[in-house]
Write a structure and sequence with these properties.
Distance between the termini: 58 Å
Largest sheet: none
Oligomer: single chain
Shape: elongated
């Protein structure tokens, strides 16, 4: 059964159709929420909240072809809401690799993941959400802007600032080991 048919059936209250839609999206939703929130439990809460909102608001979805984008928008908003509620909580994330690297690449892989983790942690949740929607979920910037409820210009500016911040964090990470090697401050 195609997605449009499943969405139409779910809009009419078919729980099995909705469950099928959820199963098809759950892994990506969870991964996106983890990247935004940087905490496994908070991510699960955000995904659950997004799915509750989806079930509740599904009858109002005008275009069944836009279900995935709509669901990602709900997830982004649920993740940002969750981050605002738990702003003071220490946040950790476990990034799981989907490919098995060779033994020689393992150290570089861990260093890269650690650098990405630190760089993403430096971003505000709204910035992380936009980066995840555009770069991880592959949403075009206009769709990501709509998902975040901001103008296209604001999305471009926020994405530009986010990427500049990520670059600065990566540059600082690359400079730090040389400072330590010369006996400077660690």
């Amino acid at each position: 059964m195609d997605q449009r048919t499943l969405v139409e059936r779910a809009r009419q209250g078919d729980r099995e159709a909705f469950a099928t839609l959820v199963r098809a999206s759950a892994t990506r939703l969870d991964a996106a929420a983890r990247l935004i929130l940087r905490d496994r439990e908070l991510a699960r809460d955000a995904v659950q909240e997004a799915l509750i909102r989806a079930w509740r608001d599904l009858p109002g979805l005008r275009d069944p072809e836009r279900f995935e984008a709509w669901l990602h928008r709900l997830l982004a908003h649920a993740a940002i809401d969750e981050a605002r509620r738990r702003r003071r909580r220490v946040i950790e994330v476990a990034v799981h690799n989907t490919e098995i690297p060779s033994a020689t690449d393992l150290a570089a892989l861990f260093a890269d993941r650690d650098a990405i983790d630190r760089a993403l942690a430096a971003l505000a949740p709204e910035q992380r959400a936009l980066v995840v929607l555009h770069h991880y979920l592959g949403m075009p910037i206009p769709e990501a802007a709509a998902a975040m409820g901001i103008t296209l210009g604001a999305a471009k500016a926020r994405l530009h600032r986010s990427l500049a911040s990520l670059r600065n964090t990566f540059a600082a990470d690359r400079e730090e080991p040389s400072v330590r090697a010369t006996g400077g401050p660690a």
